[in-house]
């Protein structure tokens, strides 16, 4: 199988879990991953696309939205995978893609995949717990204060290891296809996430609800753009006011034979690693 984004948040776990199954894994990208066989893949160089997929039975596709031009090229990459003979393709999507406009790149990528003569799995995760440790909010972990405009509403955050587990299940012969929502085992508040990390790391960490303007200014002070801060503040605000509610899904339990990881289990794993 071929894995795009093999060094990323989900891709590295897909590679590791597929290797654990004894599969031959091509870790495709511009640099070698921690496991798997490296194969060159560059979103800006179409000559690398076919060789990365040729001979693979399955592929995991991640769209790097921070790579200029990649979202627009995603349909062509997916078509290239199918043209190379890949029979099963799992696309990393998002939990709320059905509510996105028709020209949304993720929605277009999903529709492209579904139009092809392949077994298609749409991996639709909710927000990553990993965003608190290696993502946009990592700086807040270092200061001991998670300052977000998210109010007190609960949310079913997911561990990226669970996203990978569902993807690997979908890439197996006779694996599940179609939309696969991936959430944590329960909805929890940001207070609960902070408490889990505090307990695992053995140092103070608390959640403090703040106004959107303060949050945006905080992100700007750490090098993020105003537009990115405004985008996150809008999403968090919808959680706070109850207009963005995600039900807990049992996808991990149904297809992986175990329940999804809790925030406490995620935090302990992060602390140990």
Keywords:
40% helix; alpha/beta; 2 domains; two-stranded parallel sheet; 273 residues; UDP-galactose 4-epimerase, domain 1; Rossmann fold; 11 helices; seven-stranded parallel β-sheet
Instruction: Find the CATH topology of the largest domain.
Output: Rossmann fold
> Helical percent range?
40-55%
Radius of gyration: 19 Å
What is the approximate shape? globular
Strand order of the largest sheet: 3-2-1-4-5-6-8
Question: What is the class of the largest domain in the CATH system?
Answer: Alpha Beta
Q: Which ranges are low-confidence, i.e. pLDDT below 50, for 5 or more consecutive residues?
A: none
Number of domains: 2
Average pLDDT confidence is 96
Strand content: 5-15%
Give me the count of strands: 9
Order of helices and strands: EHEEHEHEHEHEHEHEHHHH
Q: Please state the oligomeric state of the protein chains shown.
A: single chain
CATH superfamily of the largest domain: NAD(P)-binding Rossmann-like Domain
Largest sheet: 7 strands, parallel
Tell me the CATH architecture of the largest domain: 3-Layer(aba) Sandwich
